Amino acid sequence: MANVLGLTGGIASGKSTVSQIFKKYHFKIVDADIGARKILDPGTKGLEEVVRIFGKQILLDSGSLDRVKLGQIIFNDAKKRKQLDECLVHHIREWIVSEKNKLLARNEPLIILDIPLLIEAHYENEVDEIMVVAVSEETQLKRLMKRNELTVEEAKMRIESQLPLSEKIEMADIVIYNEGTIEETEAQVVKWLVSKGYYSE
Ligand SMILES: CC(C)(COP(=O)(O)OP(=O)(O)OC[C@H]1O[C@@H](n2cnc3c(N)ncnc32)[C@H](O)[C@@H]1O)[C@@H](O)C(=O)NCCC(=O)NCCS
Ligand SMILES: Nc1ncnc2c1ncn2[C@@H]1O[C@H](COP(=O)(O)OP(=O)(O)OP(=O)(O)O)[C@@H](O)[C@H]1O
């Protein structure tokens, strides 16, 4: 029976970085951020619902979602974020579970579900183990500001829109510390893969 690993962490703590490491070792990933994009493609019910809540000004001239604008709105307004979450949660879950089932049917030994809001949105029953990618608050803030070109205040708002990383760590079966170099992070992932018998060096 396949082992389903839930991969989570705080915003910009390094989930995608760890996910890339798993990919390098040929393990299969279900990426919730990709699902969240697909369910908001032009012509989807998801996008229709988002337009109903936020109006046509949330679309670019091309008819696609203006992701930057939606991000600015929801990370500055908890009520709007809740509205968005409520309208998308079922679509995202459906996509994730369907992708997971496809991989289960292929008898993959290890399936990784990369879900930023795994704890907040209660995916615990969809996974066998939870891996949390952790960094210090300073590093998280610094990397988020750099990657998304945000001010300190903007970055803090995004971090505060999620459950504190410290609380996610408490829920973890495995913690990967992504404070150092990517090579150091990779070594921790490989050590875990070896300990579970999914990989031998
Ligand atoms: C607001 C949107 C358009 C911003 O898009 P953008 O391309 O700038 O960011 P991206 O999608 O890469 O998300 C970056 C990170 O933001 C965090 N995040 C995204 N949505 C949320 C949310 N509703 N609440 C808290 N954190 C969130 C996650 O850590 C995610 O990994 C987009 O994040 C979105 O559609 N969010 C709602 C869907 C959702 O809940 N996604 C999380 C998947 S579980
Ligand atoms: N060990 C590291 N050393 C230096 N930079 C890093 C390291 N790990 C990740 N980064 C950088 O930090 C940023 C956040 O990493 P990443 O995108 O992997 O986080 P994430 O948890 O997937 O983010 P999100 O929650 O927004 O999806 C990226 O710009 C990435 O290149």
Task: Report on the architecture of this protein.
With 201 residues, this protein is an alpha/beta fold. It has a single domain, classed as Rossmann fold. The protein is built from 9 helices and 5 strands. The protein has a 5-stranded parallel beta sheet, sandwiched between helices. The radius of gyration is 17 Å and the shape is globular. The relative contact order is 0.21. The mean pLDDT is 97. The structure holds dephospho coenzyme A (COD) and adenosine-5'-triphosphate. The site of dephospho coenzyme A has 19 residues, from α2, α4 and α5.
Strand and helix map with partners:
Elements lengths: L2 E7 L5 H10 L3 E4 H7 L6 H10 L12 H8 L3 H28 L4 E5 L14 E6 L2 H12 L3 H9 L4 H6 L3 E4 L4 H15 L5
Parallel strand pairs: 1-3, 1-4, 2-3, 4-5
GO cellular component, one term: cytoplasm
GO molecular function, one term: dephospho-CoA kinase activity
Family: Belongs to the CoaE family.
